[in-house]
Amino acid sequence: AGGVDEAQKASKPSKEPFPQHLRAQLVAKGLKSGKFIQGDLYMMRKTRFVASVQHGKEEIIISGSLALNRAINGDTVVVERLDAQQAAEYEGATQRLRHRVSSGDTVSEAEEVEQALDGSDALTFSGKTRGRVVSIVKRNKKLLPGSIQPLETSRMQGLDLEESERIFMPADERFPFVVVRPAEKSAKVEEHEGMRVVVAVGVWDRFSEYPKGHWTRTIGAIGDVNTETEMILIENNISYEPFSEEVIKCLPPEDFQPGPKDLEGRADLRDVCVCSIDPPGCEDVDD
């Protein structure tokens, strides 16, 4: 009976910032009965408030931070389908929410959800089942590059932060803002404002608007070409570390010259004028 009461309470929007996640026993029971489904959650482009979870041929749409219940892009989650009345209750709760943005103003979450579902995307999600996250099975551990909001700006927005805490704004708009501290306790956090940094999302309790995060390192100054290039590589999970000695040993010697067998089955372009589109000093020439 306790489990039923817990599920019924959680099925309605909570007055707290976020609803409780269900206990593992109740989640397992719901998955077995087919009431819940499990899958990977992916946000729509340029929003952290609208996502979908695919389960076989079924796609469930989750809109609004309450229904998302602290899930972030790429998480593996357990979702409960919402009937029309429940979906309307969550939509009504979403209409009342406002979130702080970097300009110091506030923006209605409902407005952002509406914009995300507007136009061609409205056709994609029209008639789809709505749902809510009841449990997060596996958190996406992706490192997030972005920038640090000045403390004064955050406090003007009403955020209660300690002197060493800052709001991290990820470059990828599908991820939430994160409350972070510098990796080293002795670091002067104000010196990192205006810099690109890398953060990993940590704990997100139900009483906090934003998750806590781990400030792993600082990339460099905003606007610097090398900094912005490295940030793009990190954002897209592209490895740019130097090749290991084991990999280097797989290469032929520097004085290698192709023989007849190496030319078999290959187009011979040695008589064709070839130019490079890459800048001087590049290591991976695309011709």
TrEMBL record:
Q: What's a single GO CC term here?
A: cytoplasmic exosome (RNase complex)
Designated name of the protein:
Uncharacterized protein
Which keywords label this protein?
Exonuclease, Hydrolase, Nuclease, RNA-binding
Q: Name one Pfam family in it.
A: Rrp44_CSD1
Domain spans labelled CSD1: 18-85
Natural source organism: Alexandrium catenella
**Which biological process terms from the Gene Ontology are attached to this UniProt entry?**
nuclear mRNA surveillance of mRNA 3'-end processing; rRNA catabolic process
Q: Which GO terms describe its molecular function?
A: 3'-5'-RNA exonuclease activity; endonuclease activity; RNA binding
Keyword Nucleotide-binding attributed: no
Occurrences of domain CSD2 (ranges): 167-237
DNA repair as a keyword of this entry, yes or no, is no
